[in-house]
């Protein structure tokens, strides 16, 4: 039974709480928030104990793991505090907004012998999980290219930093590129601000992977939430897979036939709506820790996302291809 406490009782904290509470091998014991009414209300709804600071929660509860679900620019301190206390941590994305902070978190987890995880939940939709299984089973042969689009309404979030779109939203897309095609060797990036928001709201990125595969990605806050926001195609020497909207449909197109396999996950299964993927990831996190296995998404995955973002910025500003790590 994994004993868990959560830091942050906002809207996304509620999604995390639901996921922990719905697992039979997890005991969600406590929540904390700097705003006492939020901590009290959430604790009462969950049947958990309320605290107004992480330090107080850590001092009074015997926890195995801590979830950190606070605003993007505030991840560092609560994560470090939990790691320092010897707790496993699952923090929301992006791991941090600065590479030096991400590196310190990864190093602290290693020093303390605990696991650090980042909520790249999009890996855990039913269609993305199946796409991964098909690729690993060799259905596509050797991978040749990936084409990924993630576009929705925006600007979103609280920051007005010019590159915030890459940190807030596209960090998910960069993780999916690595999840399906492996490490990025080099990339080139162009950014646009067609509405004059002062934020680079659209990105076009070309990538080369260490495997030899290539990729192209469009990421944008200049679209809307009213239509499908994602599309992915991964092609190999034997066929290609197309994933519609990250959730709704997976198609397998083998090269040697005109027949197509089309899969729509049953609406009665979990993992078919966006927030189900939180549950999928958090359940996998709980099960890995209970079994003493590595967690499925690591602090290193979080750090790699930031390194890819910084490479995009360097490429855009320097008008040249950049190696991210
Ligand atoms: N994975 C996804 O698809 C996805 C989607 C949306 C948001 N997010 C991420 O979720 C995170 C949280 O988002 P949110 O909308 O719930 O934020 P929020 O700001 O609405 O809520 C965060 C809460 O944490 C509390 N808090 C802040 N610092 C604290 C501290 N040190 N100790 C205790 N409490 C503290 C705040 O008082 C607030 O109540 C962000 O990192 C965001 O990027 C992820």
Walk me through the structure:
- This protein is α/β, with parallel strands linked by helices.
- It folds into 2 domains: 2-118, NAD(P)-binding Rossmann-like Domain (Rossmann fold, 3-Layer(aba) Sandwich), CATH 3.40.50; 122-272 and 303-318, Dihydrodipicolinate Reductase, domain 2 (2-Layer Sandwich).
- The protein has helices at 11-21, 36-46, 54-60, 76-84, 99-112, 126-136, 164-181, 276-291, 299-318, and strands at 2-7, 26-32, 49-51, 65-68, 88-91, 116-118, 143-151, 184-192, 202-209, 214-220, 230-236, 239-244, 249-254, 261-263.
- The strands form 2 sheets. The chain has an 8-stranded mixed β-sheet. Strands 3-2-1-4-5-6 form a 6-stranded parallel β-sheet, sandwiched between helices.
- Helix 1 packs across helix 8 (276-291) and helix 4 packs parallel to helix 5.
- It is globular, with a radius of gyration of 20 Å.
- Bound molecules: nicotinamide-adenine-dinucleotide (NAD).
């Amino acid at each position: 039974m994994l004993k868990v406490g959560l830091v942050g009782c906002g809207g996304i904290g509620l999604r995390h709480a639901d996921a922990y509470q719905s697992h039979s091998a997890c005991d969600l014991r406590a929540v904390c928030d700097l705003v006492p009414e939020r901590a009290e209300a959430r604790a009462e709804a969950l049947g958990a104990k309320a605290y107004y600071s992480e330090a107080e929660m850590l001092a009074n509860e015997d926890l195995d793991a801590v979830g950190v679900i606070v605003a993007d620019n505030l991840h560092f301190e609560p994560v470090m505090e939990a790691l320092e206390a010897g707790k496993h941590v699952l923090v929301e994305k992006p791991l941090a907004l600065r590479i030096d902070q991400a590196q310190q978190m990864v190093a602290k987890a290693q020093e303390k012998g605990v696991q650090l995880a980042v909520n790249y939940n999009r890996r855990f939709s039913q269609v993305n999980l199946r796409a991964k299984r098909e690729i690993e089973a060799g259905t596509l042969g050797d991978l040749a290219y990936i084409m990924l689009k993630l576009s929705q309404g925006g600007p979103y979030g609280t920051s007005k930093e010019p590159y915030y779109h890459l940190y807030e939203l596209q960090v998910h897309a960069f993780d999916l590129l690595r999840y399906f095609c492996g490490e990025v060797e080099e990339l080139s990036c162009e950014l646009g601000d067609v509405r004059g928001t002062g934020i680079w709201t659209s990105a076009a990125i070309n990538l080369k992977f260490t495997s030899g595969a290539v990729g192209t990605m469009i990421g944008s806050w200049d679209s809307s939430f009213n239509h499908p926001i994602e599309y992915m195609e991964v092609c190999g020497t034997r066929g290609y897979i197309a994933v519609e909207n990250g959730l709704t449909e997976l198609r397998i197109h083998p090269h040697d036939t005109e027949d197509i396999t089309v899969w729509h996950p049953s609406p009665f299964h979990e993992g078919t709506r966006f927030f189900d993927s939180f549950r999928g990831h958090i359940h996998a996190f709980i099960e890995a820790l209970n079994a003493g296995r590595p967690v499925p998404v690591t602090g290193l995955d979080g750090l790699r996302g930031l390194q890819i973002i910084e490479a995009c910025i360097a490429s855009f500003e320097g008008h040249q291809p950049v190696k991210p790590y």
